[in-house]
Amino acid sequence: MIRLKDVEKTYENGTEALQGISFTIEDGEFVFLVGPSGSGKSTIIKLLTGEVIPTAGRVMVNGFSMSRISDRQIPYMRRTIGVIFQDFRLIPKKTVFDNLSLAMRAVGATPRDIRTRIPYVLELVGLKGMEDRYPDELSGGEQQRVAIARALVNNPSTIVADEPTGNLDPNRSLEIMTLLERINALGTTVVVVTHERDLVNHFDKRVIMIDHGQVNGDGVGTYEV
Ligand code: ADP
Ligand code: ADP
Fold first, then answer.
1. Ligand 1 neighbours (beta carbon < 6 A)
2. N or C: which end of the chain has fewer CB within 10 A?
3. So what's the pLDDT on residue 225?
């Protein structure tokens, strides 16, 4: 479960990025986080990954209190979350297999786990048999699927995606969002930041709207400016 309660974040330069944010995302939900540029969406994502510490309020992520978490606990908290970015962030000099196995070795998976898990997640994201490809041998949509596979490989309870379709054309974007919907149907909580309104309205999901560091809408269905 993700719970933000009266969260404020003021950056070192005085920018008040979040000004009292509260919402709860239950296990198994699919949620879009939308809002104009500069409204605070990325700051919320960074609170969830522990990159940013709240100035005030409480942030709970999968049982961890992010305002009190110790450096020693952070790796354990991060294992509960898989993160996907707009620019994929694959390692260009490594194959698909190696990109994924690195993520598994980082949490101490055995070679045997790695050999069985990687084909499974690649099939799940529609990239069966692509283990030996390098990122530059894949299309943008395929690279994002590899990034999704990497986010899933350690079986997190939550996937957080920051503008995952920002570099993709509308058809590829729809495919990626549909894949995230399927992953959600298999039980993973999914939080997607996007400002692609048509894409959001294609899906009948909960939408949390952020504006000027505050929640200004939260509900299921079509959203408008
Ligand atoms: P950028 O990040 O590229 O500067 P913006 O985030 O300002 O772009 O907005 C991109 C598009 O998404 C715009 O057409 C804008 O109207 C739309 N948009 C952004 N936030 C919302 C929102 N809360 N509701 C509806 N449409 C939105
Ligand atoms: P969004 O993701 O909706 O575009 P952000 O969370 O990136 O919004 O930014 C919210 C506000 O905080 C913006 O005014 C932005 O300029 C500011 N901001 C973001 N990161 C920093 C930072 N590291 N230092 C200072 N200000 C920041």
1. 34-37, 195, 197, 209, 223, 225
2. C
3. 55
